[in-house]
Amino acid sequence: MVGKERRTRSIILTIVGILIAIYILFPFYLVVMNSFKVQADIVASPISVQGASFKQFATNLSAVVNNSNFNFWRALLSSVVITIISLVLLALFGAMAGWVISRNNKTKWATAIYMIFIASMIIPFQVVMLPLVSTFRDAGNFVGVPMLSTIPGIIFAYCGFGGAMTVFILTGFIKGVPYDLEEAAAIDGCTPEGTFFKIIFPLLTPVITTVTILNGMWIWNDYLLPSMLLGLNGKYKTLPVAVQSFVGSYVKQWDLILTAALLAIIPMIVIFLIGQKQIMNGMVEGAVKG
Amino acid sequence: MNANSASRKLLSLICIIGGIAMLVVSLIMDFSGSGVPYRGALLVCGIIALILGLYLFPTLKYHRRIIYIIFLFPLLFTFAVTVIIPLCLGIFYSFTDWTGIQYTQFVGFGNYISMFQDPQFIWSILITFIFVVINMILVNLIAFLLALLCTNGIKGDGFFRAAYFLPNLIGGIVLGYIWQFVFNNVLINLTKTSFLVQTRTAMVAIIVVYIWQYAGYIMLLYITGLTQVPKDVLEAAQIDGANATQTLFQVKIPMIASTFTICTFLTLTSAFKQFDVNLALTGGTGSVANFMGKYLTSGTQMLALNIYNTAVSKNNYALGQAKAVLFFIILACVSLIQVRISNSKEVEL
After folding, report:
1. Does A202 map to a domain?
2. Residue A222 lies in a domain
């Protein structure tokens, strides 16, 4: 009796779960389905398979990929380069700074730096974005290193903005790494930088994974910062900026817009399918620690 | 060993002197206004050479200190240039007639006064607050229910978790356009007029999309919280004769109070800063017939978008910056109050 009741309950819950999943995944289905159609068929019946063909998909695809506003391969390359270099630098610099802070946490200067980093996490991007553009422009003109509309410039900005959270999470973790390890290495004649790179850094793998996932999700999907620093019609565009610039030039051309959306979604979905568990864990741990 | 250290000393000195020389030369070029294109490269090389020289400097006494400085330098430098300096400049500019390039005079609180005389801005603040409150409640409620669903012995819960989390992977711009399509071309068959046409329903649409994007992520946090409730506590409750509802309200929810704090904080700040979906879904459009005696054309324009449009689209940088400073102050106050309330609640429980 009880067993039967339980089974009925489980079946009902599963059905509810499936219905919610359908609701959540439905927009994705629409994107995929309608990138295989021409505009007229999309308007006539957006839900059904009517009018969908691989030939049309190829047509849409080539129209979008070669579009001068979207320029998919170029945007993808920019996004990949910016994200990967920023992530590597953030992990490295963040671990270095986090190590110094956590090993001097009784001194005033380290506490002050740490507190400034934590306090800065509340600063919304909107309050710094306008002066940031003018600072980058003026500093770039002054010292002769172009900072606006360049890839190194935006990577520099991501290191600055991601630094606070990265240091916060990494410092918390490094505090838990026993100091004895470093003392033993120092007695064996290991230099401080050698100790850090050979002993501490390898131990940080789990927390660096977390930080990289958090920063990666943010940098890859970020729109406001690249749109301000690279410009909507600049030389380089990240994928979200390219989508925005593309849609701006093709109002209501849903066959092309949805194909562009599909192309912008695919890289993230592929990465999610590969590292599903790590990504979900990383997002949770980052939030719990942050 | 000795020769090694001597050569190291030489190398270090060469690097330090060379680095300083390069820095000085490039700075002289900067200040004298010469447009030599390689002065930037010279500056970067100078900094690198200087750091290398300091690193190689043969001193046992100060080596650790030098390493600490070198390790802190990259992040502190980028942080100062991208956050601290613009923040200070931004607060300063908000009291001037800044044009995005230069300013000619101080206007005191002029920008702050004029933004409160603009009904559109008051409206933006108002709808942002309503949006934040509704979202904070709905996202947490829905996410918590989803978490209960996923932890209640449902089959294939791994799939459900991944499916519910999926929208969170995709940026707001792309999501906004996808949902614009859903509302304008698909749901229109049910609703006759698109949700996005009227201001009221367009706000509902933004809320729907936001929940759709964010609930899966918050759900993951609740799942983690719920699975960390110790088994023996649940068993004890069962032995004491508590039914499922009692266990939920009297054991599980109090046990995961800290998760509630984190989740409300996350939804609060992220809803407050909502920009991407707002821009892509409605672009801020929507008419309001009469607000403070004025007809508004940007009925769904929330604070973040209002700031962006004031500065970038309408080219009024000083006013936009003043609004941004206010935005920062509101966000800081709201987060502080929220953290304080949550902390006191946690202690009570």
Report:
1. yes
2. yes
Q: What is the pLDDT of residues B145-184, one digit of tens each?
A: 999 888 877 777 888 889 999 999 998 899 999 999 998 8
Is the same domain home to A98 and A237? yes
Model confidence pLDDT, tens digit, residues B46-92: 888 888 888 887 777 788 888 898 899 999 999 999 999 999 999 99
> Are A27 and A49 found together in one domain?
yes
Do B8 and B56 form a contact (C-beta atoms < 8 A)? yes
C-alpha distances in angstroms, A170 versus A102, A104, A117, A166, A205? Answer: 9, 14, 12, 6, 11
A142 and A45 in one domain? Answer: no
Number of domains in chain A: 2
| Shared-domain flag, residues A11 and A125 | no
Whether residues A113 and A42 fall in one domain:
no
Nearest to B304 among A123, A126, A276 (CB): A126
Q: Are residues A24 and A148 in the same domain?
A: no
What is the H or E stretch that residue B291 is in?
strand B288-291
B177:A167 CB<8 A: no
Q: Does A88 touch chain B (CB under 8 A)?
A: no
- Which residues partner with B286 through β-bridges? B298
Range of the domain at A10: 2-65
Tell me which residues of chain A have a pLDDT lower than 50. 1
Asked if residue A241 lies in contact with residue A227, where contact means CB atoms within 8 angstroms, the answer is yes
Of A126, A223, A284, the CB nearest to B327: A126
Q: Is residue A7 part of a domain?
A: yes
Q: Do A243 and B177 touch (CB under 8 A)?
A: yes
Tell me the chain B residues in contact with residue A247 when contact means C-beta distances shorter than 8 Å.
177, 280
Asked if residue A110 is part of any domain, the answer here is yes
Q: Amino acid identity of A221?
A: N
Residues A53 and A18 in one domain: yes
State how far residue A208 is from chain B, nearest Cα, in angstroms.
Answer: 16
DSSP letters along B215-275, please?
A: HHHHHHHHHHHHHTS-HHHHHHHHHTT--HHHHIIIIIHHHTHHHHHHHHHHHHHHHHT--
Helix (H) or strand (E) holding B69: helix B63-79
Q: What are phi and psi of A239, to 5 degrees?
A: -60, -50
Q: Judge if A48 and A102 occupy the same domain.
A: no
The pTM assigned to this predicted structure is 0.89
CB contact under 8 A, A254 and B181: yes
